[in-house]
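Entry 14. Two folds queued back to back today. First construct below, sequence then structure tokens.
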Amino acid sequence: MKKPKSIFLLSPASRDSIYNEAVLDEIGKLTDNDRRVHSGEDVLNHPEDYRDVEIVFSGWGCPIMDEQMLASLPSLKALFYGAGSVRRLVTDAFWERNIRLTSAYTVNAHPVAAYTMASLIFGLKRAWGVNQDLKRGISSHANIIGLDEGTRVGLVSLGAIGRLVCQYLSVFSLDVVAYDPFAGDEVFEELSVRRASSLEELFSECHAVSIHTPLLPETRGMITGELLEMLPPNAVFINTSRGAVVDEEALTRVLEKRPDIFAVLDVITDEEAYCQTPLLKLPNVFLTPHIAGSLGNERYRLGRMTVEECRRYLAGEPPVVSVTKENFTRMA
């Protein structure tokens, strides 16, 4: 039986970081693939070479799937995206073609959830503050909340990352609260999480708040200075989602006014300005340059996910993570 033709359509660096030799071998067993990295320019300039391409393996650096690109890929039936958000690459023309689209965002959630857990543990143990105290010649266990009965952790959004964090937190005797107006009661029951009726309730009650909401027009700036002011004494604020979900100027003002609050931030609004942001100068901020997601060897699991999605496609089975026009609007 003839194998369907596939190509890699992404940046060379992304191909190398997502698809290791073992994954390349598996793709070669399932499809007719030349292992080369193809660019959008290649497809547009030489459409005759791509007429019979049925499957695209992609990731960061994937070109926009607009009418012109799709016209050069007339046989395309499946695009397996070995990364998270597909927001920048899909178009109305793509949806009209009814092309099967999958994303590896659920496996990309694992390192983000792990980063969040490390931040919660270090934050609620006041590890960074204690370390700073030691450097000033002060050894103190004051204001450490810890992780056990009586500690309340709040999560904003129960998407793939938020749900994983809930699972990790289940080993602790904590009160976990979440705010997600789009999650059904069955999700809260399954995760043994209490529903917060409002962001105000969550921020005013929780010793630690972690943000996992996607950046959408309606979520931009949703975490306001007023909400941050409501945090209890010595609270921890964590953001690994997108910087623009938070009113960053207000966050800076609140952290300057409330040195008892400790913020762990992996994202800021302008990700070209990590070295210039005023947040970097605050002693109660631990800032990293968007490293919570898959990096290094963690990225190979993304490639393995595309292989599983391809295997399911060829076997006529449903995808693990299907991205459709209907569910796309609520994704990151």
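Second construct, same run, same settings:
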Amino acid sequence: MKRTALVFMVLVFCCAVLFASGAKETAAASGKLKVALLLSGPANDQGWNAVAFEGLKAAEAKYGLETAYTEYVGIADGEAAFTDYASQGFDLVIGHGFQFGDPAVRVSAKFPKTNFMAIESSVYSQNAASYVMACEEAAYLMGILSASMSKTGKIGIVGGFEQPSIIKVVEAYKLGAKLVNPNITVYEVYISSFTDVALGKEAAISMADRGADVLSHVANQAGTGVIKAAEERGLLATGDSYDQNFIAPNTVIGSTIYSVPMLVLNAVEKVKNGNFVGGVFFLGMKEGVIDISGYNSFESKIPEATKKLIADTKASILNGSFTVPLIETRSGK
């Protein structure tokens, strides 16, 4: 009786191994890639994280990927998140933000067969790459627009964390504003959050109380609080990462546009073709990754001279005759 049971168990085990092996071979033969995305906030934040999620879905549709994503990944949790997906056999794990760079490089050493990507970081390894967008180019143009539309000579910008990828946007914004009005006052606040909408709104209100009549942000989800503050006060605002005019159509005069889906599709294609390599890759307006939105309902309200200055400056960036300074250390503290 015992011997019969033992033989039965051995047969069951062998069948299980056979079918498991067959499943692995079928998956490998299908060539279906597994791609995961790490986000600092919600995928539907109407800005920074939303454009990355859009890229993941676009890649999924184009290449038939198996995808996964994790929202609200804090700075301290990046390494664990990368490790989790790598240990599950994902082919590419993307961290959307500067803070994901160092964790990606550390984990890449433990999983040499997994590809890692950090957007807006500046570090790399053999199988980890950083894709850096020239966000400062669009920020410079938003500074021009904001200063041109200000009646008080005072504007403000709210940043998320005080890190290079955010500082470069704030500093370029200030330079663009001073091109229009060398004497303009630009208030700046870093709120140490990408998700706290109330804190973003509070920072914007403090600027409005000091006379700022155009409010801008580079604070991801928290930045929607800045836009709402401007809307409630009857002021103007600019959006970030995405055309955010839909959030407050009578308030948002323009937005920076980051074509993150293009970056994601590019990385996935490289993994699929077997030529993904580590390194730091820089992309801006010339590559079609950075731009600004149209003016929507403000098209007729923005002076023609302002629109011409912005168009001419953009053309100069594109033809290489002007380069927006890259400043990653905060000035004017």
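Quick look at the second one. Confidence is low (pLDDT under 50) at residues 1-30. The chain has two domains: 32-133+260-283, 135-257+295-319.
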